[in-house]
Amino acid sequence: MHQPQPRHLSVLLDRDLAQLPAVAMVGPRQCGKTTLARATVERLARTGSPAILLDLERPSDRAKLTDPESFLRRHAHELVVLDEVQRAPELFEVLRVLIDEDRRPGRFLLLGSASPSLLRQSSESLAGRLSLLELTPFLWDELVPAGAATLDALWLRGGFPDSVLASDDVASFRWREQFIRTFLAQDIPQLGFRVPAATLDRFWRMCAHLHGQVLNLTALGRALGESHTAARHHLDMLEQTYVLRTLPPLIANVGKRLVKSPKMYLRDSGLLHTLLDLDSLDAMAGHPVYGASWEGFVVEQVLGRSEGWQGAYYRTAKGDELDLVVERRGRRVGIECKASASPTVGKGTWVCRQDLGLDEVYVVAPIREAFSLGQGVEALPIGELLARLA
User: pTM for the whole thing?
Assistant: First the structure.
């Protein structure tokens, strides 16, 4: 596996720090938030702009904030980076006061894994003072392209840095197993959620088996021996911690009955494969989730990379479907995902293209070069799709 490129979010991070007094960068544990923040601090230091980074999981750094207002006033002319800020929700009110006194841009960078406290406090205390950026695990074009082998590795291992950059597939799989154990036993309780680790483990694994399917909370709750309300609670928890995505349906006035429930995906393909005990490409290829795994991988690449695009899926009651429809500023693009080196499309794709009046429909497959499938539909490798959406 080749070394990563600079993270795409670094450009957005620099932009927002130059315009707003506070920026919050959120995302799952171990996705690279601290690394990106340190790179930003080092870059600022080289230009003569001082910065300080505090890790609020480190007792010595927490001790510095015993009197947070005094400490932050002493560092008023530095960028103050607060890592794992959800560990100290009382800071948000202090930040609001300091920002209202001085709205100079680039004062605070807040890093956090999602939690009820972080989401609530940032939206209420810092409304209008803060931008919210989400850092995902590595995306395809953040890794040096090296052909199908690199793409296969990213798909199999997922994008978490320690997983995708591991020495081999065995080491990657072991890292992901440990990540899952730590996430359930330590991270979830620390983020303020109160669900037994064994219960959430069973629920997460059930979601893995239903990856890419239309969400049915009643069936999920019944399989878990709980109510649909409990299933919704568990689902929200996994969404708030950025390991699960629900993709909404596209509701369009097309004169047809449409499916109106969201679809469910595990956001990182490597975690999906680990929860299903798939440790190799051969094991993936023989599993029923193979096609849905590629679909979810493409959905995350597109929505994680393409700022400002809104995503949904489209399905009629008769079963005609487009896996993903993205929209931005009046431009609407249809995307179908095919885990095949020789992708084709069926009648449903043409029906959906006509229903929605789409000028652009792409079939994304693990291929090296684009080619036409006729009637305005084109097969593309993932990298070329991302370039066109950019």
Answer: 0.93
